[in-house]
Here is the input.
Amino acid sequence: MPRARRALRRCLSACALAVASAAPAPPVRAQPPPAAAVPGAPPEPPASAPASPASPASTDEALARAKALFQEGNELRKIGDFQRALELYLRSRQIVASVPNTLNAAFCLDQLGRYDEALELYEALLTELRAELGEPERRSVASAIATLRARIGSVVVSSNVDGLVLIDGRQRGRLPLAGPIRLLPGDHTLRVVKDGWHTFERIVTVGVAETRSVDAKLDPLASTGRLKVEDERLVGADLTIDGALIGQLPWEGALAPGPHFYSVRKGNFGSAPREASVIAGQLAVATVEAGPLGEEVRVVAQPLSADLTINGVPVGKGQWRGALPLGRHTFEAHEPGYFARTLRATVDKTTRGDIVLPLAIDDAHPRWGRRVGVFRLEATGGYAFASSLESDAERSCGSYSCSGVSRPSGVLAGVRGSYEFPIGAAIELTAGYLSLHTTLDRSLDATYAAPRGGDERLPIRYSFHDDIGMAGVTVIVGGSYHYGLSSWLDVGGALGLGVVLAEMSDEVTGTASDAERTVSVAVQNAGRAVRAAAPFAMPELRLRLKLGRFSASAGLGVGFFLVDGPPLETGNTYVVGAECDEAHPTVDCAPGKKVVFEELAHGTFTMFFPNVSAGYRF
Here is the structure.
């Protein structure tokens, strides 16, 4: 079989290069070509697909499959879909590694910014496939290698054991390594694992053209337990434990006591990570739940020191790489000093690339050794009510006969901005609108002089309906203090001094009646609004729920209105449309007179304000 694979590779490479060299363009050329050649740029991939030579049936089938994958990759590369093209080139390369599919895969990796992986394939061209390259191609590949080496860094790993090295969830070889591991500049999660030893893990930061050295010292396990994983449907499936390929099913082996995560894969069938707890000196048996898999993805937390979970299963820090079953999955990242992040996503056949969970810094967390003030903006509103506005109309029930007195009620809503200091105290400014209304019915028995003259006085009953309103822009300045019961719940209080720039009115309507008739009356200036400022003080109790940068609060405020309102300038009360018959006088003959006197729009009263708020912390 190795001899057949070498024959396939020679056939594939020779045929592809023959087609490329027959074209009028340069031998190795991408389609569509770049706009301009850049000195030192990586060589452009060949556009020609490998031709099929005569060969045995099995060789022909493998070659045809490799060609088909290569051609599909070319079509995707032409439209700029380098990620999917890369996957097809790599699958073609798994069948038979050749110059065309290796070069095109390296080109796509370069375009995707994965320079370290691109460098590996370009170097493979000069080592594994050097004999199949012409001199111009060798020079072009060498130039690309020099360019990429200047863009990346590397890490040299040494250890006291011959453990397996994993970087960002990807296996990079077993110690001792032949040379440095190439890495993109930035932070990477380095792990060294070996049976019977504690896992070594560290975040390594690599700069451009920088080589870092890491001495991974592993400690032997003081005790072990055993884990058994088997499933008769998945005999021969690859088993990955704690991110490292450890064997095939059925499998049984020794592990450190504690939680471990594992997954299985057999072709396009496998499982999501699952958790198994190993107890010292005991055997744990793990179950497998497998299904059709999607493409390989990489789950990345930012920062890399964050703990990752997939479907509630901890999968280590920073990154996890693998294929997940098709369907809905939940990804979570947690790190002290950051707000936790949860992402729910559906994995299907088109899902590929990175699933990123960036965490926002919690500036108030003790981890940072500092606490800073925060600005918060909230929308707030609630139901406002009082037992009475203490207006003269309401207080007139001592001389009037009153009925149908309603409780003053309405709404107070607005926007509150606050700056909260590290100690939990805050200054606040609220701007909004207050509206309060109440109604009552009152009546008064009186007399009036008979129109014929003399001392005779006729009885009359006045009945009034008052609709008292108070509404206007409201501004509150104050302070608050919140005490944290937990990372997500505060209890606090506030005290504000406010003013309502109010319009106040009393819409008075009514009737006059005697034993014979009932007629409407009009009160002069009734309903005319007067404007005045109504100052008040309002203490408040609050309970606040914090959800990252968002918050939701519930509160109860009590507003004390401190001064009386202005008088409502009402005039005489007149019978509407009256025609007086002096021979038979009725209420139509009642003259205009002062029945409703000038009354205060409101007095000093107490308002209750249960409310809710929703806010965002900047």
